[in-house]
Design a protein that fits this description.
InterPro entries: Flavoprotein-like_sf, FMN_Rdtase-like_dom, ISF_SsuE-like. The chain has helices at residues 16-25, 53-56, 66-75, 92-100, 104-107, 130-139, 160-177, 186-206, 214-221, 230-243; strands spanning 3-8, 34-38, 78-84, 114-121, 143-151. It has 244 residues and is an alpha/beta fold. Bound molecules: flavin mononucleotide.
Length: 244
């Protein structure tokens, strides 16, 4: 059974954002997809303390429920990341979760996973969440397959014609990409190349020194430094998984 995780940055379980997502996903449960809704208040997650340990030495110093949430995202076949617009940005709840996953940005940890980015707003936040959130997801290694904001003004969230055309298109992409092995795109390739250069540089600097670097270890352990492109790398990973 294919597993879709919807990470929703609103505490309102029946609010506009959750309702928008349920409308888009309507019918998928009956078709055999498992949908896992995650709200910020479901997990006890503290703010990042800024020590930078996750980048370099060890796991996060904060011991809370973040690893449980991360596992649900990593184990999913496709992820929806959504937030209402709060003062021209995503909610602090969602940003707190992303800050705590900061090392994923340097390791493309989502490894080509298909991701849909959504937001809702009243009147003037049409791009203020979907643009930065899509960028963050791409830096984390996700293949963003669709982005959409639903607003009250102009009326989209209560407009059945708009909702039905958006839902149809997003469902079509979800069903297509969830069946494919992880995919790359031009933004992921650019990101892979620049991060790879950083890791090669770090490797040179740390050569012969007994200094741990968790991110560099991740690149090495996963063989990512050996590949010319992200596309070649994720293809090799999906071949290994498929032969298991
Ligand atoms: C604290 C706060 C700040 C908001 N800021 C904006 C904003 O800058 N622009 C906007 O268009 N809507 C803004 N809104 C409206 C919400 O984005 C909108 O109602 C959203 O659909 C709520 O989603 P929810 O019901 O899932 O929480 C704000 C709402 C709140 C509570």
């Amino acid at each position: 059974m294919k597993n879709i995780v919807a990470l929703i940055g609103s505490r309102r379980k029946n609010g506009n954002t959750a309702t928008f997502i349920r409308t888009i996903l309507d019918g998928l449960t009956e078709e055999g997809y498992f949908i896992d809704y995650i709200f910020p208040q479901d997990f006890q997650i503290s703010p990042c303390v800024g020590c930078g340990n996750c980048f370099s030495v060890t796991e996060c110093v904060i011991k809370d429920e973040l690893p449980l949430l991360q596992k649900r995202i990593l184990d999913s076949d496709l992820c929806i990341v959504a937030s209402p617009v709060y003062v021209h940005y995503m909610t602090a709840d969602l940003k707190r979760i992303l800050d705590r996953c900061a090392w994923w940005v340097h390791t493309l940890r989502l490894q080509g996973k298909p991701v849909v980015v959504l937001s809702t707003c009243d009147s003037n936040g049409h791009r203020t969440v979907i643009e930065p959130l899509s960028e963050i997801m791409t830096f984390m290694g996700a293949n963003v397959i669709a982005t959409v904001n639903g607003s009250q003004v102009p009326n989209q969230l209560n407009n059945p014609t708009w909702l039905s055309s958006i839902s149809e298109e997003i469902k079509r992409r979800i069903k297509k990409y969830i069946e494919l092995p992880p995919q790359s795109n031009v933004f992921l390739e650019k990101n892979f190349n620049s991060m790879k250069q950083c890791m090669i540089w770090k490797n040179e600097i740390l050569k012969g020194k007994k200094i741990e670097n968790k991110e560099l270890d991740y690149w090495k352990e996963n063989g990512m430094l050996e590949y010319q492109s992200f596309s070649d790398y994720i293809l090799s990973v999906s071949c290994i998984n498929c032969c298991k």
